User: Which sequence fits this backbone?
């Protein structure tokens, strides 16, 4: 586990305020570097952990004595930050499907894993792969699909300003890649 250097973040934010031509000592800004550093510590918490460490942290599984039927958790709300602009990615929803290999994971743990992987400077595509990798480790199966939908403020609030554009990505592995019927069943369930 690593730690975020909050003192350095504070220094950097102070410099940023100066670079923007503002006065870091004025009333509204004097605590801003400290506040931003505190916020970054929270919203980038996932940068302190590797995928393996996240898997170890949320490895709460139960034996699955039933059939290995498709399990789906849909519309997990998360926020993340794009690594190209450090801009907020919002209205993000993660849906996960998997086929249990003799064990199932506590449902809240899937949300916690998605949340922790999102608390990094991310690309939406890599976020899906990170969630997949952590789940693969915990569930000991590759039969997993992770679909993410989200808005990127670097697209909606600047540049081409496509306010309503959403990006959808899918990380589709194991039987979800090879079995069309299974994949269709999953997409029907998350509609
Ligand atoms: Zn961006």
Assistant:
């Amino acid at each position: 586990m690593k730690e975020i250097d909050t003192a350095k973040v504070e220094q950097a934010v102070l410099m940023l305020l100066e670079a923007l031509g503002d006065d870091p000592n004025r009333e509204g800004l004097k605590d801003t570097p400290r506040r931003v550093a505190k916020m970054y510590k929270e919203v980038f918490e996932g940068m302190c952990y590797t995928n393996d460490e996240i898997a170890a942290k949320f490895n709460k599984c139960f034996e699955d004595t039933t059939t290995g039927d498709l399990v789906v958790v849909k519309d997990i709300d998360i926020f993340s930050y794009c690594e190209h602009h450090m801009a907020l990615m919002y209205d993000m929803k993660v849906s996960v499907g998997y086929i249990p290999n003799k064990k199932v994971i506590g449902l809240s743990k899937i949300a916690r894993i998605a949340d922790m992987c999102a608390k990094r400077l991310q690309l939406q595509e890599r976020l899906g792969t990170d969630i997949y990798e952590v789940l693969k480790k915990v569930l000991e199966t590759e039969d997993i699909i992770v679909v993410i939908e989200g808005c990127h403020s670097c697209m909606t609030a600047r540049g081409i300003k496509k306010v309503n554009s959403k990006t959808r990505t899918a990380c589709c592995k194991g039987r979800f890649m090879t079995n069309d019927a299974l994949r269709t069943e999953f997409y029907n369930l998350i509609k």
Summary: The pocket of zinc ion is lined by residues 82, 84-85, 87, 152, 154 (CB under 6 Å).
